[in-house]
Amino acid sequence: MAPLIAVLVLALTALPLVGCGETVIDGTKTEEQLQASLAKSLNEKVSSVDCPSDQKVEAGATFTCSVKLSDGTTETATLKIRNNEADVSVIDLSATNQRGQ
């Protein structure tokens, strides 16, 4: 697969979790939704997605998730938190030049 660099507008609802006085993105829910959305938009099987579990909900903040495709390539998805309700959008997906790791 050629390197994929594109602006993707995939809206995800990453339910916020509240703990220790701060609200963070639900990493597991984000991973599940991102995996399903990317598999559909790329028309390719996504083997796994790994997002941070401690991302604070701050409107305008960005964070990255590692996306492993079925052919072994790894991509980096950049997500942006759109609001304080933890709605996120994928704003970029780019190859990380890793294969079969």
Structure, described:
With 101 residues, the protein is of the alpha+beta class. The chain contains one helix and seven strands. It has a five-stranded antiparallel beta sheet with strand order 1-7-6-5-4, covered by helices on one side. The chain has a two-stranded antiparallel ribbon with strand order 2-3. The chain is elongated. Residues 1-10 have low confidence and may be disordered.
Q: How do the helices and strands line up, and which of them pair or pack?
A:
Blueprint: E1 10-13, E2 16-19, E3 22-25, H1 27-42, E4 46-50, E5 62-69, E6 73-81, E7 87-99
Antiparallel strand pairs: 1-7, 2-3, 4-5, 5-6, 6-7
**What integer is the average pLDDT?**
80
Low-pLDDT runs: 1-10
The secondary structure category is alpha+beta
Distance between the termini: 16 Å
Q: Give the H and E element order.
A: EEEHEEEE
Question: Using only CA atoms, what is the Rg?
Answer: 13 Å
Question: Which key features would you list for this structure?
Answer:
1 helix, 47% strand, two-stranded antiparallel sheet, alpha+beta, 101 residues, 5-stranded antiparallel beta sheet
Can you describe this structure in just a few lines?
The protein is an alpha+beta fold and 101 residues long. Helices cover 16% and strands 47% of the residues. It has 1 helix and 7 strands, in the order E-E-E-H-E-E-E-E.
